[in-house]
Design brief:
single chain, mainly beta, Thrombin, subunit H, seven-stranded antiparallel β-sheet, six-stranded antiparallel barrel, serine-type endopeptidase activity, Peptidase_S1_PA, Peptidase S1 domain-containing protein, Trypsin_dom
Length: 288
């Protein structure tokens, strides 16, 4: 499938993971398939959650540029203070690197460098809010809960499109898209609040790569689900596209994080390009 997304984005940030047919007690532990679960961390302001991040290595955490102000990062059950260095912006994209004052003892995360591999089944991991108690399972929209429902969850979705040069809240970013559908399995997930900076992982050639970083959704406070592809009744989640920013003099690899592993594998049976235009109009919500 060849898809280029034509969209207009108002200024709205991203939130945490919800499911159409499962409650807040679903998918709270490592799925056990090798996905870098432990490297997904919670960004905090004082004692309050404010977003999600991905620990890359060498004390660096990647998160959305609009997540802040930050005072610490929660890794597992422990809070780690930030060091005194200023956050490092990644070009004009809605991303930044912050550095921990001490080493949390985690491994590194591979960054995708091949745009040809951007597409197909992916795992979402984030610290966003869940559904509200009043939101019935299997009904649309899924209403978001309050901050007491925010915790680490994983879900799945399908990357089906990309768009370049999207301007939101002073940032210009390349994005990947997933849709929230009601008929694609119990683990089908959408981003919610505090999911800004959440991870979008894909397994390629037996290895896990960070493909995207959670940034924006369509609606604030709820997620629409539909059985129809590209329906206005199906919410889209947008992720900063790692393959656009993983290499180069002004990119993530230029900072002293472990260099990303490269690969040139194509997803079998999936051709991902930018030739078919889909017009989508919505206010983009920031997930913080």
């Amino acid at each position: 499938m060849v898809i280029v997304l034509g969209i207009w984005l108002g200024e709205v940030p991203a939130r945490a993971i919800v499911f159409f047919s499962q409650g807040n007690d679903a998918n709270l532990t490592n799925p056990g398939n090798g996905v870098p679960w432990d490297n997904v961390v919670q960004m905090r302001n004082g004692s309050s959650p404010i977003g999600t991040g991905v620990y890359l290595g060498n004390r660096y955490v990647l998160t959305a540029g609009h997540v802040g102000p930050l005072t610490s990062v929660k890794v597992g059950f422990l809070d780690y203070q930030l060091d005194s260095s200023a956050p490092i912006s990644i070009g004009t994209a809605d991303m930044k690197l912050v550095r921990l004052a001490s080493d949390p003892g985690l491994g590194t995360v591979r960054l995708n460098t091949s745009s040809a591999s951007d597409g197909g089944l992916a795992y979402l991991v984030g610290y966003g809010v869940g559904r509200a108690p009043s939101s019935l399972l299997g009904t649309s929209p899924v209403t978001w809960g309050d901050s007491s429902t925010a915790t680490k969850r994983w879900g799945t979705n399908f990357v089906d499109g990309a768009i370049s040069g999207v301007q939101v809240a002073g940032y210009t970013s390349d994005l990947l898209r997933t849709q929230f559908n009601s008929n694609l399995g119990a683990n089908e997930a959408a981003l919610t609040i505090y999911d800004s900076g959440s991870a979008l992982f894909q397994q390629i050639g037996g290895e896990w790569f960070l493909m995207g970083l959670g940034a924006y959704v369509q609606n604030s406070g709820y997620s629409l689900a539909s059985t129809d592809f590209n329906s206005r009744e199906s919410d889209d989640s947008y992720f900063i596209r790692m393959s656009s920013y993983s290499e180069g003099p002004h990119q993530i690899a230029a900072v002293g994080v472990p260099e990303p592993s490269t690969h040139k594998l194509l997803l079998v049976g999936f051709h991902f390009d930018v030739e078919h235009i889909i017009g989508i109009h919505f206010f983009c919500v920031l997930l913080q």
